[in-house]
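== Polypeptide entry ==
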Amino acid sequence: MRSAVELGPAWIRGHGYLFKQMVNINMFVAQFGFCCVYFVFMADNLKQFFDQTSNIHISQAGWIALLLIPISALCTIRELKALAPLAAIANFVYLIAVVIVLQDLFSDWQPWDQLPAFGSLESLPLFFGTVMFAFEGVAVVLPIENQMNEPIHFITPNGVLNTSCILVLLVYMTVGFFGFLRYGLDIKDTLTLNLPQTPFYQAIKIMFVLCILVSYPLQFYVPMERVEKWIKRKVVETKQEPMIYAIRFGGVVLTCAMAQLIPHLALFISLVGSVAGTSLTLVFPPLIELLCCYSRQELTKWVWIRNIGLMAFAMVGFTTGTYASMVQIVEAFGKSDV
């Protein structure tokens, strides 16, 4: 971002550092927000699992606090390559769990004519935030590319980026569409909470929890990488290691505390997506393209229309999505107005 700004018009070139920090702030908010959502997701599923299969009854807040222990341990892993084997195993387990869930979704559908074909306009801003949250991997794109032995394979037409995006899109569309056909208006914040109350399907929740548990340090890696680089530049070598681990633990505790404050999964997802996901996916990329095209003298009418249109759409979504999410969160805590 900084390089793009410094290639832009004269009036903006001196603000490269400011724009760089704006991207960093949004990235931190997004990644920590994703981590908070992971806490809530795991706590919801663990609570329902143990409530329905044992005599262990712990509140959602209690599960969030207990999860602090394994997550803190995993977040001591500082190398992305060291997390890769765990991520590979988690992806394999996730694939098995998704296949089992799909089998349930295809087993029985509600009558199509009894389900609404479209949602209400009032829920559209919340939907926008949820869609933006789906871009939760946007901040790990560059770190993954930088860690690859052959980075060129990341952006080829059939490379890592396009292939992974297509696969994720297909999974989202399939689970979302058939999940609604299966459970209709009774569908909950996460589909796993709707699964049949049998030991087999309850075990699927644990599989998803383990996958998310491993995914947490991957999302946590991005902001911590920035922090570590800053520490290595500014702090004497003898104090670097203790400070790095202290900040890592503090970051985990912060996300845990935020998850305790807003323990409503769907609303948290929409809020994070509207606030940070929108900027990282629909504001900064078009701005970078405009600045780069300016430096190459390739600012055509179509480039202007496309990028200004995207940013205008982003601002509308950001404003309405954030407001709607906050209103719903306040109402969820028993208040009638903001």
